[in-house]
Amino acid sequence: IKYYNQSIVNGDIKHYYGIASEESLVTAEQYLSILDSVGLEWEIVDSLPNCDLTIKVDEKLYDPDALRLVCIKRMYGLSINVRTDKKFDKQTGYKHTIYSTYSSLNDFTNEKQDYQFELCEKPVLKLPDKYKNKSIVIMDGPFMCIDPYGDTGLHVMGNVVHAIHSTNIGKFPEYDSKFDELLNKGMVKNPSVTNIDKFMETARKFFTDIDEAEHVGSMFTFRTVLPNRDKDDARPTLVEQTDSNQFTLFSGKIGTCIDASDKILEMV
Are 50 and 205 in contact (CB under 8 A)? Predict the structure, then answer.
């Protein structure tokens, strides 16, 4: 918030978490106990369908498009030479080089690591008015969530199971060529491949009137995580020095970006 406050969505967004009655990895009592143990405030509200508990919490959302614009403006303001839409190769001749290329990290390191590459879909939906300015997460297991998409009036939907079209563990992502026209293209209207029917099937269990939703399009990209960590879904942010003047940043969650920057500066 301190560094990127311009990207925080300041609308009247209400945030809710629900504990599913079936298949949840935590009980309602355990969940509240966890929140209390780390000092997070919560308020019990009328429960969502098929949930043992629904709470309202104090959280914030960021707008990814606004965040991107903030970063671009700052880079140009600092006279950084920004080059996009070009194939980037390993660099030499610089005092320090930092590679923060996420799923392409192995393109720039000699000692290539195994990662788990998950080809993910994020549907964008126009939801019924009752869901306006509401963010809802169903915990904790093979469930789903909805979040307002910036200030567009639309929502993005997540799903622990159905968002993933394919998974591979290795040095590089592997996928069916039918996704070439979809990957990293922003929101694609009428995508040729989609799991939206499976998303909606799961959503009906928890969200009334969800069938009134309109599927506007979907976004596709690779989520890159450490391999064989499905048991805890670990998403660490790792900063490593690979050479005397070369560093890599493996990004876990966007909320750790400032800590990662501080760590790199300290190492440099």
Answer: yes
Please name which of 262, 260, 266, 172 lies closest in space to residue 222, comparing C-alpha atoms: 172
Q: Among candidates 193, 195, 185, which has minimal Cα distance to 157?
A: 195
pLDDT digits (tens, 9 = 90+) for 168-205: 999 999 999 999 999 999 999 999 999 999 999 999 99
Beta bridge partners of 56: 16, 43
This prediction's pTM: 0.89
Using alpha carbons only, give the angle 141, 146, 152 rounded to the nearest 5 degrees.
160
Number of neighbours of residue 34 by Cβ within 10 angstroms: 12
Distance CA 51, CA 183 (A): 34
For residue 148, the cross-strand partners are 155
